[in-house]
Amino acid sequence: MASCSKDYSNLLEQVNSGAFFGPSSGVKVTAIRQHEAEGVLEVRKDTYNPLGVIHGGALFTLADTVTGTAAYTIGDRPCVTLDSSMQFLAAARGDKVFCVATPKKIGRTIVVYDVALTDGEERLVASGTFTFFVK
Question: Which positions ≥6 away from 99 have C-beta within 8 Å?
Answer without folding.
Answer: 38, 39, 40, 41, 62, 63, 66, 115, 116, 117
